[in-house]
Design a protein that fits this description.
By secondary structure, the protein is an alpha/beta fold. It is 38% helix and 20% strand.
């Protein structure tokens, strides 16, 4: 059974096997977590993403899917990129958000990763309500069969930390 932990901090500083990136579908960087990961990891991440776009992901990465690249200068081995849904109050989108977590864990298993750090996917510019996103994230991680030993949710501020931690109280 996977251990779930919470940290208030910056995901790019986490010493884990894999860091999950709340990416945009282009895989070519952006704002928020995506921009921070690309800046901190350096050009190796962008180069690997460009290679993915040139091969299997010519139209970009679909919402709810996940793919890995090397982590460049980050204190992790890999970055697992996943594209979260934009909040539209559509029940079908909840399944897409859950898929971000389960697909990222599937990719982590394929890499042999034992520790994975997740951000609060879709809660920034994609406007997903924090408490609902936390519920979906925790439920999905608990229900997903994985050989990952620790899932660490790295929350940027106290409000996000409290919303996620409240799901296990």
């Amino acid at each position: 059974m996977v251990t779930i932990t919470f940290v208030q901090g910056n995901i790019v500083e986490q010493h884990v096997d894999a860091i999950v990136n709340a990416a945009n579908s282009s895989l070519l960087g952006g704002g928020g977590v995506d921009g921070a990961i690309h800046r901190a990891g350096g050009p190796a991440i962008l180069d690997a993403c460009r290679d993915l776009r040139a091969s299997h992901y010519g139209k970009g990465l679909a919402t709810g899917k996940a793919v890995a690249t090397p982590a460049g200068r980050l204190p992790a081995q890999w970055v697992i990129h996943t594209v979260g849904p934009v909040w539209r109050n559509d029940p079908a989108d909840s399944a897409l958000l859950a898929s971000c977590y389960s697909e990222s864990l599937r990719v982590a298993d394929g890499l042999g990763a034992k520790t994975v750090a997740f951000p609060a996917i879709s809660t920034g510019i994609f406007r997903w309500p924090l408490e609902d996103a936390a519920r979906i994230a925790i439920e999905t991680v608990r229900e997903t069969e994985t050989s990952v030993e620790e899932v660490r949710f790295v929350l940027f501020d106290e409000r996000a930390y409290e919303a996620f931690a409240a799901q296990v109280r």
